[in-house]
Design a protein that fits this description.
With about 290 residues, the protein is of the alpha/beta class. The chain has a domain at about 1-160 and about 195-220 and about 260-275: 3-Layer(aba) Sandwich (Rossmann fold). It has eleven helices and twelve strands. It has helices spanning about 10-20, 40-50, 65-70, 70-90, 110-115, 130-145, 165-175, 195-210, 225-235, 265-270, 275-290, and strands at about 1-5, 25-30, 55-60, 95-100, 150, 155, 180-185, 190, 195, 215, 225, 240-245. α1 (about 10-20) crosses α8, α4 runs parallel beside α6 (about 130-145) and α7 (about 165-175) crosses α9. The radius of gyration is 19 Å and the shape is globular. The N and C termini lie far apart (about 40 Å).
Length: about 290
Amino acid sequence: MNVAITGSRGNLGSVLSASMDQSKFKVFAIPSEFYRPDFQSNNLYDFLTENNISALIHCASLTNVDFSEAHREIAYDSNVSLTKKLSDLAASLDVKMVFISSAGVYGSNSYSQDGPNGESSDAYPLNHYHSTKLKAELAVSASSINSLTLRVGWLFGTRSPSGKDFVLARIQEMAKLETTDEYYSNFEQFGNPTSCEYLAETIGSLLVSDISGTINCVNDGAVSRYEFIRRIKEICGFEFKLVGKPDAFFPRVATVPLNEAGDTSKLASHANTRHWDEYLVQYCQKLRKDEWRV
């Protein structure tokens, strides 16, 4: 199966390009100049047809939540308008559209009281970024009933030399701390740490089975940011003082949901579900060999 990817130089896109099963998929990176700053429909049409593309995985996105809140038009154009144009083009060519959304679209119910969000849960985005992701989801599903929307969790891992994902950024901060230094983390925000390597495996399985609809595509194991940071600290062997703080301690331009955890029951009916910890251990070990990329 020939697969095209947008955002191939980003964290997820770089992993998909390198890790999708080469015995089943041939991956083509769509040049970013074909869709940014202007949507070049003729070039994209030629690219998809000449390479006999069967599926288009749309990873490219403006993901900075606070920037999106302050620059709403830019975020809308990047996350909604572009997605709609790509999904319409894919539908016209009978190319399966795979859209990477976010488990943050559900809103801010309580993890301790309500547990993880299921796909049938109502979506009430609390900020402009997650609002654009939900609007993009609707555009994708309107273009084709065969499309696939994946609501992903707290992504980590990159194959991009210049990539700086959440785990890498935190490790680089931690590596500079002394034993007596304090490092603060949010104990009220919950989600599923999710490996980009796991996503590459799972997207491949979903494509082979031609699954459509909306699915929470996250690793098993919902935790607080504090618990996630504590595990990173433990794996890496750092000795600073980790201190849990409430959400109000961390000022943000945008309101961020406290419960981004996704239920994996639906995913489990289509693919293997796995806990994030084994992927985190592997990734931290690799970063250690690279001297944390500092």
